[in-house]
Amino acid sequence: MRKRLSEAQKDAMRAKDKPRLSTLRLINAAIKDRDIAARSEANPDGVSGAEILSILAKMIKQRQDSATAYEEAGRIELGEGERAEIKVIEEFLPKQLSEIEVEEAIKSAIAEVGATSIRDMGKIMGVLKSNYTGQMDFGKTGAVIKAMLA
Which of 15, 78, 83, 138 could bridge 70 with an S-S bond, Cβ 3.0-4.6 Å? Predict the structure, then answer.
């Protein structure tokens, strides 16, 4: 993942694609920031691939919130800029699961932890996050889990 990001950044520099380059630099800066924090916690290798996916997912969520806020305030051009950044970040995430695949993953996680009520939701989310980080929207997943357990 780090190599892909580095190569994409070099390609954006060569192509003089300033918006893409800016987004890739933000991604690399966020990863380096997390690396520094991990090293101070006695983890010399920095963050793992799963943590990088988590960073990217968080960045997308932040930009979605910002784009919505800008558009509600009538600042369409700023909202479009945020959405353009989202597209660049999404290139480095694994393919998103379809609704059917998400439901199957949830059913599998429910069976794995033996969940019977909403109280088991944390266990289910833990299994899903460990297996499907970056492949599903966990905000929407919570509602599906609640519906299945109700």
Answer: 78
| Of residues 42 and 22, more confidently modeled | 22
Residue 129: band (very low, low, confident or very high) from pLDDT cuts 50, 70, 90: confident
Instruction: Tokens 């997390």: give the residue.
Output: 34
What is this structure's pTM?
0.70
List, as own/partner pairs, every contact residues 116-124 make where C-beta atoms lie below 8 angstroms and the sequence separation is at least 24, other chains included.
116/149, 117/149, 118/146, 118/149, 118/150, 120/149, 121/145, 121/146, 121/149
Quote the mean pLDDT of the chain.
Answer: 87
The CATH architecture one would assign to domain 99-149 is Orthogonal Bundle (1.10)
Residues of the chain with CATH 1.10.1510.10: 2-90
Strand extents, DSSP E, 1-150: none
Q: Do residues 69 and 61 lie in contact, with contact meaning Cβ atoms separated by under 8 Å?
A: no
Find all residues with CB under 8 Å of 132, minimum gap 6, and list them: 97, 105
Q: State the CATH class of domain 2-90.
A: mainly alpha
Quick one: average pLDDT of 61-86?
92
For residue 54, the SS3 value is: helix
